[in-house]
UniProtKB/TrEMBL annotation:
Pfam families in the cross-refs: MazG
Protein's name in the database: NTP pyrophosphohydrolase MazG-like domain-containing protein
Positions of the NTP pyrophosphohydrolase MazG-like domain: 28-107
Length: 120
């Protein structure tokens, strides 16, 4: 993972911390955070279902977008990581390393992309 991505993720975590730290209540408990995360996943699923599924929105439903719901999910993820003192950049790096190792021969590679990735 490039330093730029790590820096960006850490800056996002810092920005979330600045926001949360201005309130007396601070971070919620891990159980409340996972419930909130689950809520946001449900809202994202609803939007995906409206856009790609067979269920159109009701006239009374808010005009959200998949992009907005992903943003909400990202905010809650960063808040959750902060509440547990987890460096999300490091967590992502560990996950990506695991996936790249585990799945390296699982999928059919596109040679041009593989060569470009190796040169970076």
């Amino acid at each position: 993972m490039t330093k730029s991505i790590e820096t960006d993720l850490r800056l996002l975590q810092k920005r979330v911390d600045q926001y949360i730290s201005q309130y007396k209540e601070g971070y919620f408990s891990p159980l409340a955070m996972i419930a909130r995360f689950s809520e946001e996943v449900g809202e994202l699923a609803r939007e995906v279902n409206h856009v790609y599924g067979e269920k159109p929105k009701k006239d009374t439903e808010d005009d959200n977008s998949i992009e907005n719901e992903l943003g909400d999910l990202m905010f809650v993820l960063l808040t959750f990581a902060n509440s547990l003192n987890i460096d999300i950049a490091e967590a992502f790096h560990q996950s990506l390393t695991k996936i790249e190792s585990r799945d390296k021969n699982r999928w059919t590679k596109i040679e041009k992309v593989c060569e470009e990735n190796e040169s970076n």
